[in-house]
Amino acid sequence: MIARMLTSPALKPNRMGWVPSDVKIAEKGEILYFVGCAPYYDAEFNDLPLGETQIAEATIRILNKLGIEPVVLPEERCCGHDLLWTGDYENFEKLAKMNVDMIKKAGATTVITTCPECYRTIKIDYAELFGDLDFEVIHLSEFLTKMLDEGKLQFTNTLNLKVTYHDPCRLGRHLGVYDPPRKLITSIPGVELVEMERVRENSACCGVSSWLLCGEEAKKMQLDRLREAKNTGAAKLVTGCHKCRIHFICTQNEKVPEEFEDVKELEVVELTQLVAEALGIKLQPPTVS
User: Could you list the residue range(s) of the whole structural domain that residue 14 is in?
Assistant: First the structure.
């Protein structure tokens, strides 16, 4: 619904309302942060303790710590991932053209995403539609790993924490990004990464894509994955995908079979939130209405 509404050029979304006043962003520049729909999810799922806007805020604050003032598009549209995968090619193309035009107008040469669906859509599907995009598309985990290798990213907090990592389908199987998230996690002082049985290309799906269906079978997949994570002894389940996180938290907040009650003890976080914590970045707590 939101994606189709955003295909209208006449619609001027308030895309900047969530941006804290103390962060530094630019109107034009080489590095652009494509936020995606995360800010919408806090409103859409306001009965859950998501804090999806935290992820976007954390990204900008992390980049600011690296001396980067990213471009944030004031009229950015949904990337169109869900429209494409549900067969609405006409409206997908409208969104794609609007976003590409805005990115080029901003002068960006590098587009950073935190959402794997945005990453896959812009990097692969936009390129198939328009050809060479004239800008690089990269996931935040890849960008931060590069900064780590160059000695520009240094973690200041020791977390003393055991975590496990869930490979999102779009980031992993679609784009082959397996090592950067793990390198970031294991570089944080005091953090121990314990792997689940099914990882990397054999990772289990979170159960649903494109908000198509979240029925009984999807819930079983989510509970099985949460059980797999819980069995590692980890205190936190880290994932590189907004939607995977939403699906897991949603299941944790529902009535589940008694044998799965303990999986509600797991804290499910997005990778960016963990990185922000390790850098001593304070974020606004999620609100539930």
Answer: 2-148
